[in-house]
Specification:
five-stranded mixed sheet, three-stranded antiparallel sheet, alpha/beta, 2 domains, Arc Repressor Mutant, subunit A
Length: 337
């Protein structure tokens, strides 16, 4: 996608949005992202920041209609048969309500943490904090008990009642602060989850580690240069006890979330990341983290806005002067074109 212009990507997004909604009848934003940003041949994939812009333009042009149902927004073509829209909406809403049920959402949040915990246990003689204490005592139809990692390392402490998901110590390069985000949204650099991770790790002087389903290129581009270590799971984990909901959510004629897996056992990619890749990255990540600490601090405190943060990281990486001549537009486009 790096050699395809913004205009070309917008054309692809427009074409795919209209075609998919013609076939699907009505869909929410996450379904459209799954079908366009996650799926299809590589030249046809369009990241969510462009998809959202084009979708909003189509609404403004009166070619798409948006509806608010089930506490989320749904989209359909203006020329769609109203009876078909209502029927397809009813079919998907039933599954969407199951998928977003509060009790399931809370348990879903634990699943990736448990998979990460199981992978951490495979590290020989690893020193880490944060653990689940009753995994063998009951199934995942109920929440497990977690002992959170400490809120302080020596004199450094986290503000309020915040915790990292795990803290892992490197024998030579200090601590990693690990956060697991098992959600459907792609995590762009200005998302609150990422800003909070940076804020926590600055407070404890930990190298930030983010484990999440989908990460756009701009997040890798900017944060890797600042010493943030990122692992993309390419799947959302649901509890094994929710297999029926998972199957319905994955169905291509319903929500179409085809990347869902059930259970809290780590897959090979997560095991490799934790047991082979993470520790060797510690020294270089720590050095970058120190080099860009001032920008990370300004970004986490909101004193530096996202676009300025992105531009200054890029200019520092290129050895350019960091003045106030920041580019306009979306940082995701600066790094892709």
């Amino acid at each position: 996608m790096g050699k395809i212009s913004r205009v070309e990507r917008e054309f692809i997004a427009r074409k795919r949005l209209l075609r998919i909604l013609e076939n699907h009848g009505v869909a929410n934003a996450r379904t459209l992202e799954q079908k366009i940003s996650d799926a299809g041949p590589n030249p046809q994939r369009v990241d969510p920041h462009i998809l959202t812009s084009v979708r909003n333009a189509l609404v403004s042009e009166n070619r798409l209609v948006k509806l608010e149902r089930g506490n989320t927004t749904w989209f359909h073509r203006r020329d769609a048969d109203p009876a078909v829209v209502e029927r397809r909406l009813a079919e998907q809403l039933n599954v969407f309500r199951e998928f977003t049920d509060r009790k399931l959402v809370v348990r879903t949040g634990q699943v990736l943490e448990i998979a990460t915990f199981r992978a951490l246990l495979m590290l020989p003689e690893a020193e880490f904090f944060g653990r689940f204490t009753d995994l063998e005592e009951h199934g995942d139809e109920a929440l497990y008990t977690k002992q959170e990692p400490p809120q302080h390392i020596g004199c450094r402490c986290l503000p309020g009642k915040k915790n990292l998901d795990f803290i892992l110590r490197s024998p030579f390069d200090g601590f990693f602060g690990i956060e697991c985000k098992n959600s459907r949204e792609w995590l762009y650099p200005d998302r609150p989850e990422i800003i909070e991770l940076i804020e926590k790790c600055l407070a404890l002087d930990c190298v930030p580690v983010l484990i999440a389903r989908r990460i756009p290129y701009v997040t890798f581009y900017l944060l890797k240069r600042c010493g943030v270590i990122i692992h993309q799971t390419f799947s959302q984990l649901l509890p094994a006890s929710a297999e029926g909901v998972a199957d319905r959510a994955k169905h291509k004629r319903l929500l179409g979330y085809h990347d869902i897996r059930t259970g809290n056992v780590p897959d090979g990619r997560l095991i490799t990341f934790i047991t082979r890749n993470l520790m060797p990255l510690a020294a270089s990540a720590k050095a970058k983290y120190e080099l860009y600490r001032d920008l990370l601090e300004g970004f986490a405190s909101r004193e530096i806005k996202y676009k300025e943060f992105a531009a200054r990281v890029r200019r520092r990486d290129f050895g350019q002067e960091e003045d106030n001549d920041w580019p306009n537009g979306d940082p995701a486009d600066w790094v892709e074109e």
